[in-house]
Amino acid sequence: MADFRNFLTRFLGPGFLAGVTVSDWFRHLASNQFRVSPSHWGRAAFVTATAPVTSAMKLMEDAVHGRAIQRHEMPPPIVVIGSWRSGTTFLHTLLSTDDRFGCPNIFQTMYPHTFLLGEAWFKPMLELGTPKKRFMDNMKQSLSEPHEDEMALGIISGRSNMLSWVFPHRSEHYDRFLSFEGASEADRQAWKRALQHYVRKVAYKTGKQIILKSPNHTARIRMILETFPDAKFLHIRRNPFDVYKSMCHMASEVIPMWGLGRYPEDQIPEMVIAWYRDLYDAFFDQVGSIPPGQYHEVAYEELAADPVRHIEQAYSVLSLPDFGYARPTLTAHVESQAGYRKNKHVEIDPAIRERLVREWNRSFSTWGYPT
After folding, report:
1. What tens digit of pLDDT does each residue of 121-167 get?
2. Exposed (0-12), middle (13-18) or buried (19+): which is 100, by Cβ within 10 Å?
3. CA gap 72, 209 in Å, rounded
4. Which end of the chain is more exposed for a tag (fewer CB within 10 A), N or C?
5. Phi and psi for 134 in degrees, rounded to 5?
6. What is the C-alpha to C-alpha distance for residues 184 and 285, in angstroms, rounded to an integer?
7. Measured between alpha carbons, how far is 285 from 56 in angstroms, rounded to an integer?
8. pLDDT at 137 (0 to 100)
């Protein structure tokens, strides 16, 4: 059964554009000259078959819930940021044990247009083909697990650097949507509208304050503050050498499941170096714009050693609700994960290490990790 699920996900799974509408789907295909590699025809067929259903259900969902979503009052979101493979999922999961908060789940990020009507009946069907553990590590996975919102925002707005994994021959076009530095004002406004709508919709669904998590948001602090001036940010940092090794492994596992074209594996290290550099150049330029009391930072190494203490400290700094309520559930979760084993990765070539120290110098020097 596990092998069957892996086969479905790798070759027939919906990929990054799972819940796209018909118009957006053909817009993506046309702008990329309908270039889909034969090994991904199954994925393209899945999206082509489901996109009309998504479009029809979106019309119904907007008619039923649209005005209520727009009127819904909600607290500003809490945003977990940090590089890919720096521990953002770990931190997001710890925070999600407090049931006073709401988090988008995997299904809601895959089908952002239709989850209010479609989750009850479509999620159980899709769950049958979903692997129970993530490909890039040993963490538990189901469509109900908290998940990062980048896929949802990419589907709604059509603007995400992760689309360079879907259409690798135009990676330069999509890479600008990491920090939006090279994007137009129209692009930025479209992305901010998507963010506001999606957060409001998830808050409407859950009735709770929302915790977002996306490594990509690390480079978009100003745009998030323009959308939600009172948003609170929780940043997790990790030894850049460990991030590099883990991110190369993650990309090699995830890209084949998301893409519609062949991404050359020998280009993954270059992509990792460039994305991390651009991510933290934007972060260090923008983090000072966060108002006092709305930002806290934690080191992955310290959080992993004592999760409860460091989550309590984050609650205090960010003025989150009383931690005493959250402590028992969080402690039980931490104890249940005691046997978790991390992946082991090959050592980094000395020449690559020298390059990382040079190109990622702002991270090494700011956080004091040994070079």
Report:
1. 777 777 665 655 655 555 565 677 899 999 999 999 999 999 999 99
2. exposed
3. 12
4. N
5. -70, 145
6. 19
7. 43
8. 52
Mean pLDDT, rounded, for 105-114: 95
Whole-angstrom distance, CA of residue 102 vs CA of residue 151: 18
From the CB of residue 278, how many other CB atoms can be counted at a distance below 10 Å? Answer: 17
Q: State pTM to two decimals.
A: 0.92
Cα-Cα-Cα-Cα torsion 197, 200, 202, 205, nearest 10 degrees, comes to -120
- Using CA atoms, how far residue 93 sits from 19, 76, 132, 146, in Å, is 24, 19, 16, 7
Q: Which long-range contacts (CB under 8 A, 24 or more apart) does 58-63 make?
A: 58/21, 58/113, 58/114, 60/117, 61/113, 61/114, 61/116, 61/117
User: Which CB contacts under 8 angstroms, 24+ apart, belong to 188-193?
Assistant: 188/223, 190/157, 190/158, 190/159, 191/153, 191/157, 191/159, 191/223, 192/223, 192/226, 192/227, 193/157
- pLDDT of amino acid 1: 47
Q: Which residue has the higher pLDDT, 355 or 264?
A: 355
Can you give the pLDDT at residue 343? 58
Give the pLDDT confidence of 164-192 residue by residue, as tens digits.
999 999 999 999 999 999 899 999 999 99
